[in-house]
Amino acid sequence: MTDAAELVIRTQELLAAHPPATTDRTDFLKARFDAGLAWVYYPEGLGGLGAARSAQAVVDAELEAAGAPDNDPRRIGIGLGMAAPTILAYGTEEQKRRFLRPLWVGEEVWCQLFSEPGAGSDLAALGTRAVRDGDDWVVNGQKVWTSSAHVARWAILIARTDPDAPKHRGITYFVCDMTDPGVEVRPLRQITGEAEFNEVFLTDVRIPDAHRLGEVGDGWKVAQTTLMNERVSIGGARIPREGGMIGIVAKTWRERPELRTHDLHQRLLKLWVEAEVARLTGERLRQQLVAGHPGPEGSGMKLGFARLNQEISGLEVELMGEEGLLYEDWTMRRPELVDFVGRDAGYRYLRAKGNSIEGGTSEVLLNIVAERVLGLPSEPRTDKDVAWKDLAR
Question: For the chain, which residues score pLDDT lower than 50?
Answer without folding.
Answer: 290-292
